[in-house]
Amino acid sequence: SSQHGFTLWKLMIVIAIIAILGAIAVPAYQRYLQKAAMTDVLQAVTPYRHEVELCALEQGSLSACSEAQLGLAAFPPSTYLSTLSVDAGIISLSGQQTLAGLRVTLTPTLDRRAGTLRWQQRCQSEENNAALLEACRSVLRETDDGERP
């Protein structure tokens, strides 16, 4: 009699190929989602950075540069932020959803002679998620004047 359809071996090979492709595609897609979410966070944080810079240059120090003095809303609209605060110029935020477990601190240093601020970023992950930390560092790298952590 002639055989019709797939044999068990052919079916197992197809399943193995699909599993291998899935193992490659899923982490890449998750990194893409995390990087996109970090870009959204960067857009939400940028007005706060600019206000801290203006405050520091006008006041001559960072101590007076907090949420209440900046004149911005206490919390920007972002799907991926659970908290955002500014205290003495230091911007702290926590992620949610795709960025769950992420904590970011943007710390400015005032150079009075040059009249500029130098930003240093620190990304931390509760689960030490390497992909999430890399997405954070790559998107926020411009906040530390081009120096990679």
TrEMBL record:
Keywords: Membrane, Transmembrane, Transmembrane helix. The chain crosses the membrane at residues 6-29. Gene3D superfamilies: Glycoprotein, Type 4 Pilin. GO terms for cellular component: membrane. It comes from the Bacteria. The keyword Transmembrane helix applies. The keyword 4Fe-4S does not apply. It is found in: Membrane. This is Prepilin peptidase dependent protein D.
